[in-house]
Write the structure tokens for this entry.
Amino acid sequence: MNLREQAYETFTEQLLTRRIVPGQFVSQRELVKLTGMPLGAIREMIPRLEADGLIRTVANRGLQILQVDIGLIRNAFQLRLILEREAVGNFVSAAPAAEIEDWRARHLAIRAAARQQVTPALLAEAQQMDWDMHDRMIDALGNSLIASIYRTNSIKIRLIRNETTRMLPELVVSVMDEHLALIDALATRDVAGAEAALEAHLESARRRAVSI
């Protein structure tokens, strides 16, 4: 990984951990301090960030981090649905039965634990598993262009982090149930059922987002 790629990875990590916040204005030298990367790497990274829609250059003000608004929410979730609908249709036939059952077991374990108590560790595990399963379906397409577009869009989805969109303790069981409906369809190789379960799951997340 070259310095430009390292700078990009570090920038997105800072963004997702909220050390850089949506709508914030920053200079190139501030990005050097925030990321710990050399100025040359920052300058090389900026065109990619602009192309990905993560920053924009504002005359006389500097670089502005992507703002979270209704337009972003609508567009990001629409793109996510388009890409994941293609992915789940492929995954129905491509996913090994053993892998599907492993996903089922992990979801059932988290759901059972959540009914007792949702600890910070369990919440983090549930959130990571949610992301991992969606990423896995995209990766199973074997299309690097789709994977790249999806990863960039995922950054935007994850920036929509407020009380209506992130996984809260009271949402763990319902999110696991939504995933289990998808897993049931995958297990029976039901394309229409898998697509319907996926759409219901993503629509649930979108509704929470637009209720801001």
